[in-house]
């Protein structure tokens, strides 16, 4: 009972756990939105983890330039992340449309090939000699934090606003409708005069930009610095969340909430009771299975 109590109640038991849980949910929500946009267009972005990591490193390089106005550095860092991620996504879209390359392979290879380069930049260009970790110096200007000493920051608020905005855009705008139709049934879209191929590049570019923006949120909000391996598998979890939410932007909010609470619950249970990783993974798997399984009635019942 102590393990179950720590697992399900621990993430909400105090300000530190609550803030870190909400922060984790925000990062998962932002990254899964990038995955959902690609899926909705009929594409598959398998490079979210790498795009997130590279976007965070690009933002860190800008934010460590030197003394400047707080807003300028933060905004420039976010723009750098958006630009790098959008470029990687658009490049995969160009290869898919004009070179008939499989975007599953191209998104993964392009981002994975640049991850060692990003590691090199952190270790030899951004790393501070005053820290024992392979990390940069703390940012002088970062996103405002809430619920100290947790990692919760303004990135959570921004993420919710972005999700709501894109949910409205995909549901109530003409480009959003065209992307949905092109992704759901390209032949039907073509019959209605919509060329599904013309949305591959912008959809993958937007997917990459949102993934990289998550990297900016991680370094500028969660950690306040850039360190090796800060992505921590968020991109891979985002793909699972998007699929569980059926690529519906508004559904990403509760699904990310459940997934983020499970991750924080495993950490809380490990700290409180010493529960091993295998047991926490088993509980996560059971809860996710029960949350995503579908029961269909027989038509003869």
General description of the model:
It is built from twelve helices and no strands. α3 (48-63) runs antiparallel to α4, α6 (154-172) packs across α7 (174-184) and α11 (252-273) packs antiparallel against α12 (277-292). The protein is globular, with a radius of gyration of 20 Å. By secondary structure, the chain is mostly helical. The protein has one domain. The model is unreliable at 297-301 (pLDDT under 50).
Helices and strands in order:
Elements: H1 2-8, H2 15-40, H3 48-63, H4 70-99, H5 103-126, H6 154-172, H7 174-184, H8 186-191, H9 200-223, H10 234-244, H11 252-273, H12 277-292
Helix content: over 70%
Q: Unreliable runs, pLDDT <50, ≥5 residues?
A: 297-301
Termini separation = 39 Å
Q: Mean of residue pLDDT? A: 86
Number of helices, where a helix is a run of at least 4 consecutive DSSP H or I residues: 12
Query: What fraction strand?
Result: under 5%
Structural class: mainly alpha
Radius of gyration, Cα only, in angstroms? 20 Å
Q: How many strands, which pairing sense, and closed or not: the largest β-sheet?
A: none
- Count of strand segments: 0
Count of structural domains: 1
H/E element sequence: HHHHHHHHHHHH
Q: Which overall shape is indicated by the principal axes computed on the Cα atoms?
A: globular
């Amino acid at each position: 009972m102590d393990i179950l109590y720590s697992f399900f109640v621990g993430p909400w038991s105090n300000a530190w756990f609550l803030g870190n849980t909400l922060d984790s949910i925000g990062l998962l929500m932002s990254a899964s939105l990038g995955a959902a946009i690609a899926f909705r267009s009929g594409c598959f972005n398998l490079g979210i983890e790498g795009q997130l990591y590279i976007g965070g490193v690009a933002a860190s390089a800008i934010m460590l330039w030197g003394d400047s106005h707080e807003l300028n550095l933060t905004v420039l860092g976010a723009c750098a992340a958006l630009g790098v991620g959008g470029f990687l996504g658009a490049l995969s879209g160009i290869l898919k449309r004009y070179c008939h390359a499989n975007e599953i392979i191209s998104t993964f290879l392009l981002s994975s090939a640049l991850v060692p380069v990003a590691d090199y930049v952190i270790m030899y260009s951004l790393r501070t000699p005053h820290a024992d970790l392979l990390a940069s110096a703390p940012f002088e200007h970062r996103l405002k934090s809430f619920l100290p000493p947790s990692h919760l920051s303004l990135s959570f608020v921004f993420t919710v606003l972005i999700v709501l905005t894109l949910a409205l855009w995909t549901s109530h705008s003409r480009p959003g409708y065209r992307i949905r139709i092109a992704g759901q049934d390209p032949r039907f879209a073509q019959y209605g005069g919509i060329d599904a191929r013309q949305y591959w590049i912008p959809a993958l570019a937007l997917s990459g930009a949102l993934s990289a923006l998550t990297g900016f949120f991680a370094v500028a909000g969660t950690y306040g610095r850039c360190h090796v391996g800060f992505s921590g598998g968020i991109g891979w979890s985002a793909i699972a969340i998007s699929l569980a939410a059926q690529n519906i932007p508004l559904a990403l909010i509760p699904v990310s909430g459940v997934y983020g609470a499970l991750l924080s619950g495993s950490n809380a249970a490990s700290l409180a009771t010493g529960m091993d990783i295998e047991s926490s993974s088993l509980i996560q798997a059971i809860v996710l299975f029960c949350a995503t399984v579908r029961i269909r009635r027989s038509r003869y019942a």
